[in-house]
């Protein structure tokens, strides 16, 4: 079978690693023509080139929260000769154009909530996400809730909000909503034959908002680490007492619960004075400094900021950690960090919300904490540090749900359903 695949490849992210694994596992069984943006990230393009599949760079534009490819004659010919077309990230608005060329099956991944709300990560004020229908008053309320959260957690100061925040809340809130309404319509939804979501929690949210999609949605968990990779990384494990640290790797985005974790550390350090917090990913030093200044907190002295590191080094960091922490305050569509850490045998403390609760088996592979609750998070981290974990059990339990064989079986079932 021949598949044409659309993937913007504009930036590196957790979704990119899932997309790469998807292609790795299927490239020997299907022929792929992969279309990426002409201005794609050099790092992403370099990473994709290791797959030895056909990559074609084409013009694309950002429309609101989506990426739209400009269809030329070469793309038309590829579509005409394909058995199916895949949309791998946020390229959904290209689907109606595809259908005008040929009524070929279109399969689209949903990795976020952009089709039901124009504010992606921060939708619905970062709490009870997507449990209320989207509308302009709701968007204004959401935007205001976001800025309230920013002020409370020192991402911005009150003066910044009054100078420019209110303009963004009311002006850009309306603009976002109008543009989104113009983009997401029945024509777009009807152009896609089947949607793949990456957790059952995500399917529930989409089915609530768009009931007509229920029969067109299939759940396929993201492919994560292979057994071979896990075996090699585990060999690096270090259990030295002088390396007492926990790891957080999700950056300083508010929805990831970064500030919740910093607040929880105050309680944890009373019991574990030598504990360090290792941060990987991208962080704004000004935000971190502002938090320490406002909270009069000495926790910054115990933070080790590694920044963005090589993927293999990241996995080695997980395997050497006493725990990996994932305190999101929005319903994560999946939770790749959680699955990776557990596959490596490291217990995880993560929020009891979204797709995360489908990965963490509470009290077996880690602990689930109440989203947005620093006290409960600190209690669960202390419990994790006090306990002697069976790392092989954590790894084995996670492999039972997330392995290459299960993924291939599910994705092939999806392909058969469409074709």
Describe the protein's architecture and organization.
This protein is an alpha/beta fold and 419 residues long. The chain is 44% helix and 16% strand. It is built from 16 helices and 15 strands. It has helices at residues 14-26, 42-49, 73-80, 95-101, 136-152, 158-183, 186-190, 200-209, 227-234, 258-271, 285-295, 311-320, 336-343, 374-386, 391-401, 404-418; strands at residues 2-6, 31-37, 54-58, 60-63, 66-69, 84-87, 106-110, 194-197, 217-219, 245-248, 276-280, 303-307, 323-326, 348-351, 366-369. The strands form 3 sheets. Strands 3-2-1-6-7-8-9 form a 7-stranded parallel sheet, sandwiched between helices. Helix 5 (136-152) runs antiparallel to helix 6 (158-183) and helix 10 crosses helix 14. The protein is globular. The relative contact order is 0.11. Mean pLDDT is 87; it is low at 121-125.
In short:
The chain has 419 residues and is an alpha/beta fold. It is 44% helix and 16% strand.
Question: What's the arrangement of secondary structure elements?
Answer:
Blueprint: E1 2-6, H1 14-26, E2 31-37, H2 42-49, E3 54-58, E4 60-63, E5 66-69, H3 73-80, E6 84-87, H4 95-101, E7 106-110, H5 136-152, H6 158-183, H7 186-190, E8 194-197, H8 200-209, E9 217-219, H9 227-234, E10 245-248, H10 258-271, E11 276-280, H11 285-295, E12 303-307, H12 311-320, E13 323-326, H13 336-343, E14 348-351, E15 366-369, H14 374-386, H15 391-401, H16 404-418
Parallel strand pairs: 1-2, 1-6, 2-3, 6-7, 7-8, 8-9, 10-11, 10-13, 11-12, 13-14, 14-15
Antiparallel strand pairs: 4-5
Helix pairs in contact: 5-6, 10-14
